[in-house]
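Bumping with the actual sequence this time:
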Amino acid sequence: MHILVTNDDGPPSPDSSPYVRCLIKQLQDAGHTVSVCLPHTQRSWIGKAHMIGQTLKPTYYRPSKELHGEEALGSTHPRPSASGDVEEWVLIDGTPASCVQIGLHHFFQDRGPIDLVVSGPNYGRNTTAVFALSSGTMGAALEAAVCRHKAIALSFAFFSRNHDPVIIEAACRRSVKVVEALYKQWPTDSSADLYSVNVPLIEGVENNKVLFTDILQNYWQGGGCFQEIEADACDENEEEKQIREGSLGEVTGEEPPSSAKKGHSHKHFKWAPKFAGVYKSVEEAPPGNDGWAVKEGYTSVTPMKANFAFTQAASGQKELQLQQTTAVQTLPIRVKEPRHSEQGQTFQAIVSYEDPYVQPLILAALTSVFPQGLVDVIVNVPSSQDASWLDQLLAGPDARALSITSYEQIDFEFAASHPRSCLINSYMIRKALIRKHYLSTTVDHWIAKRPESVLKKHVKRSEAFEVDFAEFLDDALIEAFDLRESLDQNESLEEASQRQWWILKPGMSDRGQGIRLFSTMEELQGIFDEWEEGEPDSDDEGGGEEEDTGDGITTSHLRHFVAQPYIHPPLLVDGDDRKFHIRTYVACSGSLSVFVYRHMLALFAAKPYSSPWDSPGDIESFLTNTCIQSSPNENTVRRFWDLPLPPRSWTPSSPTSAL
């Protein structure tokens, strides 16, 4: 993969940046493309800052072939190499966060997209909140995260002034494996934007565990972080070395004797934080945090969001499983294909959609998108078709074709045999869950196993039953206990407005066919009797063909039904008294993450809404299916987020209609 490396310690230096050269070499040896953009000097303890008003200027660093000590120092040049055949890093006279911005957006484009940003290795640990909140290493990773790039902040925790090259190289090898494992296992649910990784510089680090940890919440103790001095501050690199390795640094936690002064005097102040309290907080804290893990010799991994908060996905002491062998993930380089000339690239578009308001919209879209003469539109499609019919309309078997029809008309057989020349408007799907009686059973089973599910409150319970003939309706409802009880109670109520109304849906129908409202057994029986009127008495009379009974439902649909309590009144928007439903797309991944497409549509009924007892037979007032509307208009379909919904007028806890 293509990795951008930055840090807050600057270019290689035995005093302040002793690890970065070795890590980059290990990443390159693992097969990764590594681009480097570093601060031109020490920039520790600066967090995620940018220098406002400063014009940043790059210089170009050519690293040494040596990895450690004074021999690892490279050379800096004001201009990049003219030949471009040498390894060259970019140094910026800015902050670590600025290096990330410039590295992501202004250099290295010729190497392809950057897959991961690695900030570090930091010269010293970045465990606990005190260190993490001030860290330039963490700040650079956070900057990458808010730029929507995967990022890892890498820090090396040392316990001795003896920086053994063997131990450093082992820590770098360990870091490469951790980086590769985290990238491969990066969560897809946006639970982590970046990771903070702390690797202890100890013998045998490659054999120790890698643990997911929390960040220990701690605070500065024992006074301020600055020391009064009389002389000018020393070199920045030397200061960082003294802070990390001095009497108050990571090697020991002893505090020097304090000297009291009275009155005001002109002073300078040198950054000299006291780490004794930090290490004491680690000793006193229970296991499971990042400071504890490093103290015990483990590598610490903390998933974080780009808001200085570790995520709930961090589980104390759970081990990160590393692959035994380093697997190099190579991402394909996407090369933009040249545009073909329009000559010879014409195609045929077969557009035959059943809905009269959809057909002209599709034709208008084709006209607006494709130049004149590029597409040959066919709208006259034979009404009786075999399973494979598309080849009969095309100029030849290999003709380029776009077929947009209703799902039932799609010629899947032809499309499957001509994948390079034929496009259709839908994948092949299974309709089990959209069949109402199957969906009802699935919801019932789910709630029975998971009574705490939101479906228990948000989906009205359905009564599913089977009816072969209208005369057997009473027997079919024997086990529909809630429905029978409701209908019996309604019989004693003279006022229709006091009854509980139900909505009947044939399980195998679609496009709004056969949906009715009822509140009594007599009304329900009348619906089924109406459907059977005019039906042939035997198969011989009907010729064996399914026929439409005239009310939008075919005889084959008269078997599976569901009935649900009807929700009255529905949510209506200001200025429009028509009922509506929301049409949206969702994508499901794994088992089971559901992603909802934000750009939703609101589909409105054809007529103003009326109560079920006022006009139970007027389906255009309570059904929002646009396909049943005799005269749809431009206000039938609207963008949901453009609707004048009053704030807090409805809540997710309110049940919604299953229409």
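The tokens above came from a reply further down the thread. The longest helix spans residues 165-184.
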